[in-house]
Amino acid sequence: MNIIGEKVTDFAGKITSVTATEAGLVVNVENESGSFGNVLYTVTFGPSIVAEEETGAHTIRGVAFAPEGGTVEFSGAGVWYSSGPNKRVLKHITQLANGQRTFAVDNFDLVKNTAYGVVYSLD
């Protein structure tokens, strides 16, 4: 059994808003993700586990609007870490409403408001 499967798609898009809350930083993203289509999602960053290391947990929730007209919701969780000033790398597993599971790596630039990355299948 392979743990991480084949690459499903690359994606690129923009951060549409950032809100500081008591729960953590909440980031809304819109991107184009190949066969998934237009994907809108929200990431909530948990606090740093160790402040000096700038790493912690996050949750993700969103919906994909497929090019052929269908929609699929998804949610998941993972870890984030700082990759430079105002930049974050997120690695997470998501469960789609259609039963598909994915592993994704997101790269956020919170100054340029950009998001890009790659999605892999699981199992």
Brief summary:
The protein is 0% helix and 72% strand. The chain has no helices and eight strands. The chain has an eight-stranded antiparallel β-barrel.
Task: Explain the layout of strands and helices.
Blueprint: E1 4-20, E2 25-32, E3 38-48, E4 55-65, E5 71-84, E6 87-96, E7 101-109, E8 114-122
Antiparallel strand pairs: 1-2, 1-8, 2-3, 3-4, 4-5, 5-6, 6-7, 7-8
Task: Describe what you observe in this structure.
By secondary structure, the chain is mainly beta. The chain has one domain (4-122): Porin (Beta Barrel). Helices cover 0% and strands 72% of the residues. It has an eight-stranded antiparallel beta barrel with strand order 1-2-3-4-5-6-7-8.
- Average residue pLDDT: 93
Query: What is the terminal-to-terminal distance?
Result: 7 Å
Count of separate structural domains: 1
The largest sheet is: 8 strands, antiparallel, barrel
How many distinct helices? 0
Proportion of beta-strand residues: over 45%
Helix content: under 10%
Q: What is the 3D form?
A: globular
